[in-house]
Specification:
This protein has a single domain (28-211), classed as Four Helix Bundle (Hemerythrin (Met), subunit A). The protein has 212 residues and is mainly alpha-helical. The protein contains 6 helices and no strands. Helices cover 80% and strands 0% of the residues. It holds the Pfam family FTCD_C. It comes from Inquilinus limosus.
């Protein structure tokens, strides 16, 4: 699903990811952890669709949904890697020389670009997770009763991932000196958070009704 380099996060053993996350290393941080969680949540949804498809004679529509799920897992996986890369770029910009006016200007530009990227990446990641919640909404109706609880668990995980990754937007908004851009990003953050909550609440109600 994803193109992995030698140092890819996705080549790490799970224990390595867990232990590095809990260490004093600055990366991986909240954004990448949120997107790893999102891939796991969506994985539960896709699993439920696959199991249901295996029991359905006419599985064409389910296969289409599964392909969409696989695509979104790849997107979310890429967002996790991008979050680490952009933080590294920001740290590199902080270390740029600032002895002359030219160096100071170059450093300011690099920091501004890194801050913009560090704000846009979690917004894009939250959008992908929101699309994953749309898929979970369809799965909550189509999945067999025996597996629909996993759809509910996946949707709850995706909701948490959206909320978690958007904290990265909050912290980076403070570093933007462009008030107009800052407002656009803040509005996008609010929209994504509200939409994720609404969709996840609807899925939770549907799943609970089906399990009664």
């Amino acid at each position: 699903m994803t193109v992995e380099t030698e140092d890819s996060l996705w080549r790490w053993p799970l224990t390595t990811f867990r232990d590095t996350l809990a260490s004093d290393s600055p990366t991986p941080g909240g954004g990448s952890a949120a997107m790893v969680s999102a891939t796991l949540g969506l994985g539960l949804v896709v699993m439920a669709l696959r199991i249901t498809a295996n029991k359905t004679p006419d599985r064409g529509f389910l296969d289409t949904l599964i392909l969409s799920g696989d695509r979104l897992i790849a997107e979310l996986s890429a967002h996790a890697e991008a979050d680490i890369a952009v933080f590294d770029a920001y740290m590199a910009a902080l270390k740029l020389p600032k002895a002359t006016e030219e160096e100071k200007a170059a450093r300011r530009t690099a920091l501004r670009e890194a801050t913009i990227a560090a704000t846009e990446i979690p917004l894009n990641a939250a959008q992908s997770a929101l699309e994953a919640l749309d898929l979970a909404g369809q799965a909550a109706t189509l999945a067999t009763t025996q597996i629909v609880s996993d759809v509910g668990a996946g949707a709850a995980t995706l909701r948490g991932a959206v909320e978690a990754v958007l904290y990265a937007v909050d912290v980076n908004l403070r570093g933007l000196d462009d008030a107009g851009r800052r407002q656009v990003y803040a509005d996008s953050r609010d929209r994504l958070l509200a939409a994720a909550g609404q969709r996840a609440d609807g899925i939770a109600r549907l799943v609970r009704d089906r399990l009664r």
